[in-house]
Amino acid sequence: MTRPPQRTGGRVGVFGPLSHLALVVWAILVIFPIVWTFLGSFKTNTEIFGEHPLGLPATFHWDAWGRAWAKAHIGQYMVNTVIVVAVSTFFTMLLSSMAAYVLARYRFPGSRAIYLLFVSGLSFPVFLALVPLFLTVKNLGLLGTHTGVVIVYVAYSLPFSVFFLTAFFKTLPTSVAEAAMMDGASHTRTFFKVMLPMAKPGLISITIFNILGQWNQYLLPIVLLPGNAEDKWLITQGIANISTSAGYEADWAGLFAALCMAIIPMLIVYIVFQRQIQSGLTAGALK
After folding, report:
1. Contacts of 246 by beta carbon, 8 Å cutoff, 6+ apart
2. I need a labelling partner for 159 at 20 to 30 A (CA). Which of 101, 135, 151, 205 fits?
């Protein structure tokens, strides 16, 4: 006996190809600028602005990579960025996981208000706080230091991290924590030894998002690391300096090479941890 066709089949038949077409167009829009940037790093200025700017370079020149690394000090700025992002991400995850666990598992006067205060930070654009941040960091004597940048990075990364991890900790079973408490484990030991390992998928996802966001940050370093602290600049400042310091004689190949140096580490991080990111987001959404 033949079953009548389902109505939902028509929808799938129509929106299936359209969704695939949209994904293909989106992939082209994302991948093409990256590929063009990598190819431009091997070209000369004449080839970049010549008759075939989208073509392959006649000869793959590595000189631009050397100029960007040595003369533009991209190597030093990259080391500075790695240190700042590593330290700020560590403290962000430590503080946000502890705050999220308490807000998700315990009820006390003001807990809801504290949670809403964290969530409200998501709606506060960073550029609205640049002047207060500058004055605060300056009054603390941390202007032009990596310590000041780390503190501000942590503060701006906490709202989203707490918001996501609070929802994730609520999905974890309470029976395991109760069993650990009955065995004599303290609240601290239960959190670090039992609950934190169980939240590993969510922690990995938020860690990667924080690394990506802090690595690509530009406004905050510009404000907190002024020109007199050039040896402490981060990679985004170094890249911007390449395009502005040379004036009409800008080294476009060197600029593209510097951009590639900034893209490659984050690209590797995302490719390596892609499964963990997806599993963490899916686990937090479906449980």
Report:
1. none
2. 135
d(CA 140, CA 142): 5
H-state helical runs in 122-251? 130-139, 146-171, 174-182, 187-190, 196-198, 200-215, 219-224, 235-245
CA distance 209 to 46: 38
Q: Which of 49-58, 239-248, 249-258 bottoms out in mean pLDDT, i.e. has the lowest?
A: 239-248
- The CA distance from 223 to 215, in Å, is 16
* Residue 12 identity (one-letter amino acid): V
Range 190-199 average pLDDT: 87
Q: Are 188 and 101 in contact (CB under 8 A)?
A: no
Model pLDDT, residue 62: 84
Provide φ and ψ at 72, rounded to 5°.
-90, 0
**Count of helix runs (H) and strand runs (E) in the chain:** 15, 0
Residue 7 pLDDT grade (very low, low, confident, very high; cuts 50, 70, 90): low
Residue closest to 245 by CA, chosen among 253, 255, 235: 255
Residues of the chain by 3-state class (helix, strand, coil), percent to 5: 80, 0, 20
Flag whether the pTM goes above 0.85. Answer: no
Per-residue model confidence as pLDDT tens digits over 217-247: 988 999 999 877 788 999 988 888 877 665 5
On the CB side of 186, CA atoms within 13 Å amount to 3
CB atoms within 10 A of CB 111: 13
